[in-house]
Amino acid sequence: MGKPKQGPDNYPGDGPYGTIIQAMLAELKAGTIAFGWAAGHLKRNITSLCTTLVNRHFATIRDKNKQKPFPTHAAWLGVNATSKAMVLSECIKAVNRHTGLGNDGPWSHWKGTHWGHWYGYQQGGTFKESVDKAIWQPPRDEKSKHGPQRTYKLQPVFWPKQSGHPSKWGWNQSHRDVRYVWGWDPKNSGQQNGLYGSHVGFPFRVGKVHYILWVTPKIAFLEGINVGASKTITVQNVNRTGFPKTSTALTDASNHGSFGLWVVTR
What we know:
Elements (H helix, E strand, L loop, with lengths): L13 H17 L1 E6 L2 E6 H12 L3 E3 L4 E3 L2 H5 L6 H12 L11 H4 L1 E10 L5 E10 L3 E4 L7 E9 L8 E7 L6 E4 L13 E9 L2 E7 L4 E7 L4 E5 L2 E13 L7 E8 L1
Antiparallel strand pairs: 1-2, 3-4, 5-6, 5-16, 6-8, 7-8, 8-9, 9-10, 10-11, 11-12, 12-13, 13-15, 14-15, 15-16
């Protein structure tokens, strides 16, 4: 028998979840956040974090096994290379935003079925491709259960069972008077006491592309979607056409990272 698949991170409960979110926000407010891995901690200030992820967003990635070049994430989204400085600038501004979003959050742009693949380097340098499908439901109103009496925007997210991993539920949430967004994505990380699943995000827009810089205590992602463009991707031998979506990740101290390419259908 092969090595068993890792299950998802388990939700730690509302209190511990809130503590994790506030701890990340405090680190970011102080200007530096530390990402913890088994091999140690990697500290990034906000400019360095955005710079690393934006550089990867515009970089050509090559599968070292097949020598297969992938489109840059910017190209997949239809972002011109000349926009790199603007994406970096808006990423930094999003984290340093001092006012509320002023809207109900970006969730209507991200809703739909996300068809694609996640790519990453495993221990030993093996490049692995995994099918990644998720259903981001339409956002809905959600009354607050704790703290100020507010009506939030809540977007449930469902990951069907695939590749030996169990099905999972998560969510995205926002409020127009809050400067950031937050969510739960349990990943297939094994039990991490909420340190993988707890996300805080900073949305921004460049042209027609909507971005979110997602931060967790372990990893960070720069995700983008262009609802004004169309791409076709083949997933499990079926062609899917929809809005292009990308994610580039800071997952360890190496220069490899991980990334994903999708289309979103509605």
